[in-house]
TrEMBL record:
Domain GP-PDE stretches: 1-296
Keyword hit for Chaperone: no
Sorted UniProt keywords: Hydrolase
PROSITE patterns assigned: GP_PDE, PIPLC_X_DOMAIN
GO MF annotations in UniProt: glycerophosphocholine phosphodiesterase activity
The protein, known as: GP-PDE domain-containing protein
């Protein structure tokens, strides 16, 4: 069972589960120090199609010269509405229990590069060692069961996926990497556009905590398993609430040789983590790995094995990017990436 750090060591903006800022290189490296096997990160595109890492579809901001006293002095802006240069020049505010906190780790000169928010996806690939696996969640707003959209999106979905794939092939091959998305169509698109990186469907399923999505493929574990089987993708990542008092339900996916990852706040309990490890789930995505993770008993992270790294190195060759593998001759010109 793989130990996967949720946004690094955990969420930090709306709940203080970690002292490190979520979705930063610093937080990802802390997972490696805690002997975690992978990190989960959120990627989306700016207006000029630059893949960046950020969880929400937008953030609160204000004009550079405006004094901010409370939340009513702020406005909400979407990532897709800003170019990358505009994003870097923006003020960023986080609302925590009705208090307003300005986030400065963006353009301040004395702040470590590893602590910056809005890192490019290419910067993540280049900064993290290849032995640290990545679960790259592609963000796309969903329609809720009530008919209300999570957010709006005006970027071209086809180009959106292509740009993330291109960035990954040029900067991120040669490492354990799995794509994931709550959008079932994006999962299908990744599966059909390339054959190097596997993909899993993320889903809430049945939950008392989260509202359901309108897409029927995401409304239950059974529906998610059925979709994975028909789309010929690697597996699913379900909220742990679907398996409360029904732990043996994991066999529904494992018997079909599908990968099964679990996520959710409840997984900060060491005993629950052990119960699911005993059931051989593929991976557990959770916060606070430095506190409840495997560092006290795991000898080394899983992907450090040389045989595995040699296997993942073949990704670069098969995708047409062999320049990063020592001793490999450059591939002949290929039709990759063929943008469909």
């Amino acid at each position: 069972t793989l130990d996967v750090g949720y946004r690094g060591l955990g969420a930090s903006y709306f709940q203080s589960s970690t002292s490190l800022t979520e979705n930063t290189i610093e937080s990802y490296l802390a997972v490696l120090k805690a002997k975690g096997d992978m990190v989960q990160l959120d990627v989306q595109l700016t207006k000029d199609y630059v893949p960046i890492v950020w969880h929400g579809f937008g953030f609160y901001t204000s004009d550079r010269d405006r004094s901010v006293r409370d939340r009513f002095d702020l406005r909400f802006v979407l990532i897709r509405e800003l170019t990358y240069s505009e994003l870097k020049a923006s003020r960023v505010f986080i609302l925590k229990r009705w208090t307003v906190q300005e986030y400065t780790n963006l353009n301040v000169k004395d702040v470590s590069q590893n602590r910056r928010i809005f890192p490019k996806l290419s910067e993540i690939y280049e900064a993290l060692p290849n032995t640290l696996g990545l679960l790259v969640e592609i963000k796309w707003p969903q329609i809720m069961a009530s008919g209300v959209p999570e957010s709006t999106q005006s970027l071209n979905k086809n180009t959106y996926v292509d740009r993330i794939l291109q960035t990954t092939i040029h900067h991120g091959c040669g490492r354990p990497l799995i794509f994931a998305s709550f959008d079932a169509d994006i999962c299908s698109m990744i599966r059909l556009k390339q054959h190097v990186f596997p993909v899993i469907l993320m889903s809430i399923g049945k939950s008392q905590i989260w509202d359901e999505y309108m897409d029927l493929r995401t409304q239950s574990f059974q529906q998610a398993v059925n979709f994975v089987q028909s789309a010929e993708i690697l597996g699913t990542a379900l909220h742990v609430e679907n398996f409360q008092n029904k732990h043996q339900l994991v066999n529904l996916a494992l018997d079909l040789q599908q990968a099964l990852f679990l996520w959710g706040n409840d997984l900060q309990d060491e005993h629950l983590l052990e119960q699911f490890r005993a059931l051989d789930v593929t991976g557990l995505i959770y916060d606070q790995m430095d506190r409840v993770g495997p560092s006290t008993w795991k000898r080394s992270e899983f992907f450090r094995a040389p045989q595995l790294m040699e296997l993942f190195g073949a990704q670069c060759v098969s995708s047409g990017n062999s320049t990063t593998i020592p001793g490999i001759k450059p591939a002949k010109p290929t039709i990759w990436p063929k943008l469909r």
